[in-house]
Write a structure and sequence with these properties.
eight-stranded antiparallel β-barrel; 10 helices; Alpha-Beta Plaits; disordered C terminus; single chain; disordered N terminus; globular; 2 domains
Length: 294
């Protein structure tokens, strides 16, 4: 987990949009998004949480220039994912060099990694490239108040990836025609996720999911029989599988910039407290905070 890959200029809206409602000018999503997926061993969620909650404190202590947004799975097996973004691979390199050039800092993250490994079965990193032509209303996303995320991965059949574009256009046109303008960002897999597309939908509340269900009939009417038949055919011929999961932001696992904390202080709380060297840390970390009621 030490390689949280992230310049915050990228992270602040690699993830689907800009701080439109926070008196902050919209920031275009960066070109490159890294996602680190951590598979947690069954029934080890609690112990893993205690270790994961220490990373932000160490980053704060070391004045780490990198920032990360951590989320925990609400569907599927127990997992954590960490989002971070870059404007370029050159920016990724500079962030990596900050850590590799400081042996003492690297040792502290290594110590945390070793403790976390007890509770983890696998760690997987994927790199994605932003596709603005396949995204929607990214400036309408309120990221600091988005406490939930729907993360959808479309695994396309080899050689059929480009057909995803037609599917997205049909879906987006019907979505807008039915009176919805939900923000989402789309990324195309580059490394560790070939022939795949990633769709990120930020939500300030799970009420957004209820709204989607309420508009399902309207969406079907806007799509029409012809559009519905076309999407079904495209899916059958081009999509190998789809992963659709719900995630909740865990502020204790996240190391975010002060502007996020200022935008939603009740949720994010104060900046991470400085903690002693990992090998001497004892006691339980705070339990993940539940998002405030909407």
């Amino acid at each position: 987990m030490k390689k949280w890959f992230g310049s915050f200029a990228g992270l602040s809206l690699a993830l689907a949009g800009a701080l439109a409602a926070q008196q902050t000018p919209p920031v275009p999503p960066p070109n490159i998004l890294n996602i680190e997926t951590v598979n947690i061993k069954p029934y080890m969620d609690g112990p893993y949480d205690k270790v994961a909650s220490e990373y932000p404190g160490v980053s704060q202590q070391l004045k780490d220039p990198m920032h990360v947004l951590g989320l925990e799975a609400l569907s599927g097996p127990p997992r954590a994912i960490y989002f971070s973004g870059f404007d370029s691979f050159e920016a990724l390199q500079k962030n990596e060099e900050w850590l590799s050039g400081d042996a003492a800092s690297s040792d502290k993250f290594d110590a945390l990694d070793a403790r976390a490994a007890t509770y983890v079965s696998e760690v997987h990193n994927t790199v994605w490239h932003y596709r603005p032509d396949l995204s929607n209303n990214v400036d309408g996303a309120d990221i600091p108040h988005s406490h939930y995320w729907e993360v959808i991965v479309f695994h396309m059949r080899p050689g059929h990836a480009e057909n995803f574009q037609e599917m997205t256009k049909l879906y987006r046109d019907a979505h807008l025609k039915s009176g919805q303008n939900t923000p989402w960002s789309t990324y195309e897999g580059m490394l560790g996720a070939t022939d795949s597309y990633l769709v990120l939908k930020p939500m300030t509340s799970l009420k957004d999911e209820d709204a989607g269900l309420a508009h399902r009939k309207d969406f079907g009417a806007a799509l029409g029989d012809e559009g519905s038949s076309r999407i079904s055919k495209l899916s059958e011929e081009n999509v190998a599988s789809v992963e659709d999961n719900l995630w909740m932001v865990n502020p204790d696992w996240s190391y975010v910039e002060k502007s996020w904390i200022d935008a939603d202080p009740q949720y994010w709380g104060s900046e991470p407290a400085t903690k002693p060297a990992p090998k001497h840390a004892t006691g339980a970390a705070p339990a993940p905070k539940a998002p405030p009621a909407e």
